[in-house]
Amino acid sequence: MSNEYTPPKVWVNTSSDNKWASINRPVSGSTHEKDLPVGEHPLQLYSLGTPNGQKVTILLEELLALGIKEAEYDAYLVNIGEGEQFSSGFVGVNPNSKIPALVDKSADDEVNVFESASILVHLAEKFGQFLPQDASARTQTFNWLFWVQGSAPFLGGGFGHFYSYADEKLEYPINRFAMEVKRQLDVLDKQLSKTTYVAGEEYSIADMAIWPWYGNLVLGNLYDAGHFLQVESYTHLLRWAKMLSEREAVQRGRMVNRAWGEEWEQVPNRHSAEDIDRVLRLQP
């Protein structure tokens, strides 16, 4: 390889000025003092409308669609490109400095919840929805929820970074991660050939966790890599992805904490249903 890299004896940070590479640091903790804003609802979400952020807002919108008023929430945009995830307030909620992060103030002692899967489980158990009570079905839901937590980094930080965001298009990492992503798509496609939803016949938090990554990918909303990955060949996965995309709560949830795209799909901060309704009225 013409650009072969020989690692030094001791690692030295040589990251470029690439926006999405420079947000990472080799140490944890805050870089500046800043408190988090706090709204009027018991659930305070600090996030960004990336696939990981969409998982939580889709669940919250699904809960509200069921008429569960206690699921009302304030959602504040955290601009990770500007380093807002390293504020003292955010680090106080999530010491790992990754979105999303949730503060649940509904009880006497408020609870900090971080990692998207942990937030999904916390909310599903809190409101008794989208997580089966039957032991076998519950285990299948957890199987697929944890599957996406382990698999999506290969899609996002692996394939997505090198295919869409890296300074140079390098064959080795793109080929390596494309192969893994296609294997994952095949895993999902084969599973969905047997079941309506990913974990079975019941819509669950597993679907809400997987759709923002793999549903958006096969529907052409992520990395513009559909033709490259031949996503049309995953017919069962496409059936499921389209079915979920037609759910109103999914459509609303993917808009929250979003600050890019068409004006009618951007709701940077959300404090009530009207914040989303107002933006939807701009849709042509």
How would you describe this structure to a colleague?
By secondary structure, this protein is α+β, with helices and mostly antiparallel strands. It is 47% helix and 6% strand. The protein contains eleven helices and four strands; from the N terminus they run αβαβαββαααααααα. The chain has helices at 19-22, 51-65, 88-93, 116-127, 135-165, 171-192, 205-218, 226-229, 235-245, 248-253, 273-280; strands at residues 43-47, 73-77, 101-104, 111-114. It has a four-stranded mixed beta sheet, with helices on one face. Helix 5 (135-165) packs antiparallel against helix 6 (171-192). The longest helix is centred in the middle third of the chain and has 31 residues, at 135-165. The termini are far apart. The model has no long low-confidence stretch (mean pLDDT 96).
Care to give the gist of this entry?
The chain has eleven helices and four strands. It is of the alpha+beta class.
Features:
globular; alpha+beta; 11 helices; 4-stranded mixed β-sheet; 284 residues
- Share of residues in strands: 5-15%
Uncertain stretches of 5 or more adjacent residues = none
Radius of gyration computed on alpha carbons: 19 Å
**Structural class label:** alpha+beta
What sort of overall outline do the alpha carbons produce when their principal axes are compared? globular
Number of strands: 4
**Largest sheet geometry:** 4 strands, mixed
Helix and strand succession? HEHEHEEHHHHHHHH
- Residue share in helices? 40-55%
State mean pLDDT (0 to 100 scale).
Answer: 96
Order of strands across the widest beta sheet? Answer: 2-1-3-4
Number of helices: 11
* Spatial gap, N to C terminus: 49 Å
